[in-house]
Please model this.
Amino acid sequence: MQNIGWIGTGIMGKSMCARLIDAGYTISVYTRTKNKARELIGAGAVWCDSPKAVAERSECTFTMVGSPQDVRAVVLGDFGVLAGARSKSVIVDMSTSQPALAEQIAGAAAGKDVAALDAPVSGGDVGARNGTLAIMCGGDPKAYETVLPLFECMGENIALLGGPGRGQHTKMCNQILVVSTVLGTVEALLYAQKAGLSADHVIQVVGSGAASSWSINNLGPRIAAGDYAPGFRIRHFIKDMGIALDEAKRLQLSLPGLALAHELYKAASAQGLENLGTQGLYKVLAELNGLPS
Ligand code: NAP
Model:
């Protein structure tokens, strides 16, 4: 595979696509706001006017958009990837989306002799830039093997977890875990502030012990610096928690920690903070406690 398509060049997609360009692949690109693809076009990517036009030029087309509605539009819409996909090509959705939608896409693609993989990621903006993402894949093993060299440009820990939708289910496990570590990071640093400790010193010490997590080591320093810019937007986090809660309901599973975090983040969104990074919850809880943020 040499001709690769890329749809969605936000925080994650831009860095992931850039890594494929650096590796020498020929890239066709589309995203909703063309300006956000400017650097990729400058680096050699060819701009196309729709996801369909991208797919017509590509042996493998990646999508990295926002919500399940966005995935549905760019893959299954009239001018979507599937409308232009060549026979024997592969569609890979790397957005965090619904398992059932991944299954629907794989079914629709099979009807056109196209393979579809769901391959959501973990590792944040830092992992996307450095090519160190974890990639959780669901779908056909042959298609997975074909796409693996491309995944290897973007990630380090890459696995096929089963058929269509299994990548998204695994990502839900990831998000359920992340919810706890982000909330723990926010509360630990609130405690540090109130107790008169240096947040940086606390992060340095606890970040390598039993309480170590990606959240304390990556989001902790951002909170300490008052940096609430998005690596991962609150609105996407709320979307992910909603998907996980829907799936849990379907499985008749009670996940009270996840439900509590969902409520807290909905409050952050109601305060107009939905485009801050997930560490922005610190602002909400700091205000509740009468502390600066
Ligand atoms: P983002 O910055 O919001 O980027 C999403 C991009 O997709 C935006 O550029 C958006 O266009 C584009 N898009 C949305 N709908 C589209 C459509 N219908 N047609 C064309 N382009 C469309 O989000 P992100 O942080 O890169 O995250 C992307 C996905 O990865 C999400 O599903 C997220 O949950 C997941 N994820 C994110 C992280 C993270 O740390 N950021 C980590 C793991 C997984 P506009 O620019 O016009 O809005």
